Amino acid sequence: MRVLVTGSTGYIGGRLVPELLAHGHEVRCAARTPAKLDDRPWRDQVEVAEVDVFEPDTLDAACRGVDAVYFLVHSMDGKGDFEAKDRQAAANVRDAAAANGVQRIVYLGGLGRTDDEDLSSHLRSRQQVGRVLADGTVPVTELRAAIIIGSGSASFEMLRHLVEVLPVMTTPRWVSTRCQPIAVRDMLHYLVAVLDEPATAGEILEVGGPDVMTYAELMQTYAELAGLRKRIILPVPVLTPGLSSLWVGLVTPLPPGLARPLVDSLVNEVVVRDDRIQGMIPRATIPFREAVRMALTRIQDLEVATTWASAGGTGPRSAPADDGGAAPGGTPEDPQPEDPHWSGGTVFADERSVHSDAPPEPMFAAVCSIGGRSGYHSPKWMWQIRGLLDQLVGGIGLRRGRRHPTELAVGEVVDFWRVEALERPALLRLRAEMKVPGEAWLEFRITPEAGGSRLEQRARFHPRGLWGRLYWACLVPFHGLIFPRMARRLAAEAERFAEHGVTADGSPPPPSPRRRRR
C-alpha cells in the first residue's frame, strides 16, 4: 500500500517507517519539520511532506493518493489543553482522509477500561481520539497498548530512571496497580500486520505481552536485569499523583508536561481484557524480562549513543507520540536519532576535539601507543592513584601494562583497559576493566582534515544506580585536568611520528633515545 505516517519523527513513527518499507509498502512521511528526517538511514526511500496536523490544507495534500494513514501524534507537552488539541488533530486527519478516499486509518491508543470513572486525563484523551477518528467514513483500526518496552518509550524511561537513581523509594498506591507491558518489536508487528488483515478494519483491538505485573514487580525486575540491588519500595498512602509527578520530575529527566499525565495514569489498571487480535494476527509475544534485556543491550553501544538527539522543537501545538501508553538503528529496541535526549539510559561523557598537522596514520599510531610505560600524556600521579584505589577494592590496577609498546589488537590489555574496537586508522575504543559502579570507555576517532587530521576523544560512562552517578560527579574536576592535556599531547605526538615516519601498518617508529630515557 501507499501509506502516510504522521508523527514520523517520533518514537513509534521513526521505528514504524523502516518496518513498513521492509514489508514492501510505499511510505510518505508527514513532518512539521522535514529537515528532522534528513539523517535517517531510510530517507532516500520515502517521500516527505511538510504537514501541520492543525492546518487542514497541508493534511489534504499529504493524504492525496494514499491508501492508509497512521495517526501517531500527541500534544502532551505541558502547554495548553492537550485533550482538546488531540481531538482537533484527530478530526483534521479524519476529514482529510475521507476527502481523499483513504481506505484505512490506523491509530495507536492506550489501554484502560472505558467505564472507569477515574480514568486519567491521559488515557481518557487517548480513547477520545479513537472515537473522533472513528466518527467518519474511513474505517479505523485502533490498537490499545499499555507500557511499550523499548529505549525511548516515555513510561519505560521513567521506570528506568526511577529504579537506577533510587535504591529506596517511597511510592503511592499505584505501585500495586497491574499493567501488561508489550515489547516495541511486538507493537510494530501488530501495527504493520493490521494493514494486511481486513478483519481488523473498524475494530478496537487490545494488545499486550504475556506478562501481567504490578509496577513494583516491573521495577524490581528491571533492577535485577540492570545489575542493581533489590530496591526498597515503601508505599505511602497519602502521596497523591500530583506530588508523585513532582518527585518523578526531580529524579528523572522527563519533561514535567509529560511526566505529570503519565504518573496520573499509573492509578489505572491497564491489562488486556479482549484478546481477539490473537485470532486475527496470531503471535507469541516477547516476555517482559526478554524485552528489557533487548532494550538494555544497546545502551553500551557508543556507535549508537553518539547519534542520540532530542526530538524537541516540534512547536507548542503537537509533538510526536511518545506516551508510553502507546510507547530504538539495527533493531526496534535500539536508540534512534529522533529519540528524546533522555532516552536510552544515562550516559555521561567528556568529549574533546583537537586538530593535528599529522595525517590520520601517525595520529592513529600515537593513539595506539598510550598506556603502559608511555602513560596517558597527562599527570602520571593521577593515574597511579587511580590504579592504587582500584587495587585497594580488589581491582587489577595498572599492573597489567601492555604486551607491546606500540602494537594493539582487539581483545588486548592496556593497563586496566581492554581493546574493544580497532579500525585502522580511524577508531580505537578501550573498555574499562577497573572496579567502577557502571561501564566506562575511552574512545578515539580520527578523521582526515585539511592540513592534517582531527582527533575526537571521548570518555563515556554508563552509571549503575545512584553510586554510579556520584562516582562520575566526583571525577568531573579531575577530567578537566586530564583529558584536555591528553588530547593536545596526542596531537603533538602524532606530529612527531609524522616527522620521523610511520610504518606501513600505521605503527609508530621506535621511541627516540630521549623518550626511552624518560
Question: Topology, please?
Answer:
Elements: E1 2-6, H1 11-22, E2 26-31, E3 47-50, H2 56-63, E4 68-71, E5 73-74, H3 82-99, E6 104-110, H4 121-134, E7 140-145, E8 148-149, H5 154-165, E9 168-171, E10 178-179, E11 182-183, H6 184-193, E12 204-206, E13 213-214, H7 215-225, E14 232-235, H8 241-251, H9 256-265, H10 277-280, H11 288-297, H12 302-305, E15 319-320, E16 348-356, H13 360-367, H14 380-392, E17 413-414, E18 417-423, E19 427-432, E20 438-449, E21 452-463, H15 465-500, H16 513-517
Parallel strand pairs: 1-2, 1-4, 2-3, 4-6, 6-7, 7-12, 8-11, 9-14
Antiparallel strand pairs: 5-15, 10-13, 16-21, 17-18, 18-19, 19-20, 20-21
Compact description:
The chain has 518 residues and is an alpha/beta fold. It contains 16 helices and 21 strands.
Q: In CATH, what is the class of the largest domain? A: Alpha Beta
Helix tally?
Answer: 16
On the 0 to 100 scale, the average pLDDT is: 83
The CATH topology label of the largest domain is Rossmann fold
N-to-C span = 70 Å
**How much helicity do the residues have?**
25-40%
Instruction: Please give the number of β-strands.
Output: 21
- The second-level CATH architecture of the largest domain is 3-Layer(aba) Sandwich
Overall 3D shape: globular
The assembly state of the depicted protein chains is single chain
Largest sheet: 7 strands, parallel
| Structural class label | alpha/beta
Q: Which percent band covers the strand fraction? A: 15-25%
Features:
518 residues, alpha/beta, Rossmann fold, Alpha-D-Glucose-1,6-Bisphosphate, Chain A, domain 4, 16 helices, 21 strands
